[in-house]
Amino acid sequence: MTLNSQILGQLEQQAIELPSWAFANSGTRFRVFGQPGVPRDPFEKIADAAQVHKVTALAPKVALHIPWDKVDDYAKLRNHAEDLGVALGTINSNTFQDEAYKFGSLAHSDAAVRQKAIDHHFECIEIMNETGSQDLKIWLADGTNYPGQDDMRGRQDRLTESLAKIYERIGENQRLVLEYKFFEPAFYHTDVPDWGTSYAQVVALGERAFVCLDTGHHAPGTNIEFIVMQLLRLGKLGSFDFNSAFYADDDLIVGAADPFQLFRILVEVVRGGGYGPDSGVAFMLDQCHNVEKKIPGQIRSVLNVQEMTARALLVDRDALGAAQQAGDVLTANSILMDAFYTDVRPALAEWRESRGLPADPMEGYAESGYQQKIEAERVGGEQAGWGA
Ligand code: LRH
Ligand code: MN
Ligand code: MN
Q: Residue 384: which residues within 8 A CB-CB, separation 6 or more?
């Protein structure tokens, strides 16, 4: 099995958006381990993200998180990104760190708190207008800890109303993507726990509202590729937040915990028309690098996605369809497994070299001297939002 020119042409179009927060210090609730050279402001986060794109040609956009990436002048940030060869991507809102949001945000029982959260999203949309971003991503920490704590139905109805107000402001060329998560920080119930709830909410909003699927936001054992298939079938898969999970929302490097799961997901993406710039499905990472270095961590991540996409593109669709049609279970399964077990790394290295990229981007970055430079120059890096 080889990566023919058609597959290479498809791979050339791959774009994976990086999260600005992956470059800052992060950790768990037990400890944030600071690293030398981490960015001190959003400008430096973008400079670091640009290094990932430089050695891989895979990461042309950087997602921002407001208020973690708040700046006075977004046009300046946009120009800075463009000068470095990248663009500003998805704007992520934050309604989970203010005291006011103790009992929720868009689903809160108090209209004043809901309005505060809605206003924050209006601000995010204004920022999108300046940054040229297409997507507003909403992830809510809303939920309850104890049965009876609040009325789940009332909360869902209020959520619908709040989202409608936000959606009204979404521009012609913009989209709202609603992310779901089955638990945490609320432990009894979450107001957007699953794809079905997110789907019901975005369908009610309209054609520019979609579901965001974060791979780490499912219970262990969930068949995520089935959800991918279903959302693509329904035309409502807007974006991915890729990461790896061994247990829950671990936010580890995509493809690290379960490469076969990543393959299965990408097979359904390709099968369902979710791959490529015109598919309407944005690939993003949502990860933290708590103990490993951040820029190499992001390089490894985008390469993992690229390698697994290449394998998904290798699946012999015609042969698979014929085996499926014939009820030939074992042949159908082995066609899929043949693609999964194909080591595409040498072919990708060769192809990279032919395009003037380092054959091994990890090595290319290590040799660039950038890490030493930032470690020497930057003192007092900022905390990622979680700890700030
Ligand atoms: C919380 C979360 C979510 C968001 C991100 C900013 O679970 O990881 O996935 O996208 O924070
Ligand atoms: Mn996410
Ligand atoms: Mn998460």
A: 21, 24, 25, 26, 32, 68, 288
Pocket of ligand 1 (CB under 6 A): 65, 92, 139, 179, 181, 214, 241, 249, 286
Write out residues in the chain with pLDDT < 70, as ranges: 383-388
Q: Give the pLDDT of residue 1.
A: 81
ipTM: 0.96
How far is Cα 229 from Cα 268, in angstroms, rounded to an integer? 6
Q: Is residue 344 part of a domain?
A: no
7 assigned to some structural domain: no
Q: How many domains does the chain have?
A: 1
Contact 20/354 with Cβ under 8 angstroms? Answer: no
With residues binned 3-state (H G I as helix, E B as strand, rest as coil), the percentages for the chain, rounded to 5, are 45, 15, 40
Q: How far does the centroid of ligand 2 lie from the alpha carbon of residue 191, in Å?
A: 15
- Residue 331 inside a domain? The answer is no
CA of 350 to the centre of ligand 1 (A): 36
Predicted TM-score (pTM) of this structure: 0.97
